[in-house]
Design goal:
membrane, 3 helices, transmembrane, mainly alpha
Length: about 60
């Protein structure tokens, strides 16, 4: 029963990460592999990478005169 629950959780996280990657225009294969490897932890990783990218863009724009 535990393996079935884990498999369903990984599959659902794969679908969610695939949707989020498609919405952001990112490489779906790479994020699908991350979802298969990390399972549900890949969902917060998408938001973390998105926030880091936005922060980096803000810092670069602030340094430009």
């Amino acid at each position: 029963m535990g393996y079935l629950l884990f498999s369903v959780t990984v599959f659902v996280s794969l679908l969610i990460v695939d949707y989020l990657a498609r919405k952001r225009g990112w490489n779906r294969d790479r994020w699908g592999l991350a979802a298969l490897t990390l399972g549900p932890l890949a969902i917060p990783l998408v938001y973390l990478v998105d926030a880091a990218s936005a922060l980096r863009k803000m810092m670069i724009n602030a340094l430009r005169p």
